[in-house]
Amino acid sequence: MLGDILKSFLMGFVDLLRLPWHIFRWLQLETLKERMSSLMLAGYSSEFLCLVLALMTVILVVGLFRHSFLRRTVNGLELFNGRIGQFACWFALIMMIQQVLIIVMGQIFRGNELVLSPFGLVFSAGELQWLSGQLKLYNAILIALAAAYTFIEGGHVRVDLIYARLPYRKRKIFDLVGTLIFFFPSSILLWWFAWPLAMNSMFSQRPLNVWSTKASWRGFKWESSGTAEFTWVWAFKLLILFFAALLVIQAFTFLLRNVMALRETEEIETHPRLDRGEETLPTAADANAAEST
Questions:
Q1: pLDDT in the model for residue 130
Q2: Beta-carbon neighbour count of residue 81 at 10 Å?
Q3: Which of 99, 120, 172, 245 has the fewest CB atoms below 10 angstroms from its CB?
Q4: Regarding predicted confidence, which is higher, 74 or 214?
Q5: What is the mean pLDDT of the segment spanning 234-257?
Q6: What is the pLDDT of residue 291?
Q7: 107 in helix, strand or coil?
Q8: How does pLDDT run across 145-166, given as a tens digit for each residue?
Q9: DSSP conformation class of 228
Q10: Judging by DSSP bridges, how do beta strands 203-205 and 124-127 pair with one another?
């Protein structure tokens, strides 16, 4: 079993080198059904996982020899997740405004529909029951897309019994080991289970499951609930997939950040604040100075 795992991991490097060729061959498939069926199976295959792990390994090895590359990679990936999270935060405001409008229209004006029509031009019109259900989608977007951003800034609740008492380097080793044992596997498993859920919800095909080895794509489906409320079931399941992808990226970024912290002579902030607009990674001394100011 260990030999098969090692062989698959090494094949990931080969597939990484041959990735343009694989994409070219996929584009050469004759029908859309063949392309989509191939894509359905590739998204959660062991080959795809090994290719991603190979890419991460290459970045890590290059970063160990080129410190500037490691620093730019951490900054870039955290900025990527941060910008997505900051965009998702606007849905909290949209959710609040829409909820207020629903209450005003339903409780004060006793209406059943909310119409946006400035100067007589109708931009949107929806029943209050539909719009009330739509608030769940905004909440799901906020959670799924901003979770990685919240982790970057240390906003998640954590119960600490030992961590705070450890010296700086031991805390970094603790974070490094925790990322490899818990953060990475849980994020990958979430992607693995979310992929067939999202694909079955969006597309009409032979039903996928985590053990599927065959797929037969037939068309677009866009699963709905069939009720009067907001019915985009496929959107919620797709958000789980985005949530898993952003967490995988953040797990890798946190791994690189801790590797870099162990190589640095100065202490590096574990959870930087992206709203500072800094071009370089903040150190712990910078954070303490900012807090005292």
A1: 84
A2: 24
A3: 120
A4: 74
A5: 96
A6: 46
A7: helix
A8: 999 999 999 888 887 888 888 8
A9: S
A10: unpaired
The pLDDT tens digits for 193-223 are: 999 999 999 998 888 888 888 888 999 999 9
164 secondary structure, DSSP code: G
Q: Is 187 exposed, middle or buried (0-12, 13-18, 19+ CB in 10 A)?
A: buried
Cα separation, 149 vs 89, whole angstroms:
10
Q: How confident is the model at residue 124 (pLDDT cuts 50, 70, 90)?
A: low
The CA distance from 76 to 272, in Å, is 13
Q: By mean pLDDT, which of 4-18, 48-62, 72-86, 226-240 is the weakest?
A: 226-240
Nearest to 250 by CA among 70, 83, 44, 81: 81
| Those residues with Cβ within 8 angstroms of residue 54's Cβ, 6 or more apart along the chain or in another chain | 9, 12, 13, 15, 16
* Other beta carbons less than 10 A from residue 74's beta carbon: 24
Q: Decide: 151 and 250 in contact? Cβ < 8 Å.
A: yes
Query: At residue 186, what is the residue type?
Result: S
Question: Residues 263-269: contacts with CB within 8 Å, 24+ apart?
Answer: 263/64, 263/67, 267/168
The token pair at 29 is: 């498939």
Cβ-contact 10, 46 below 8 angstroms: no
Phi, psi of 279 (to 5 degrees): -90, -20
Three-state secondary structure call for residue 130 = helix
- Residue 252's CB is within 10 A of a number of other CB atoms, namely 23
**Amino acid 108: pLDDT:** 86
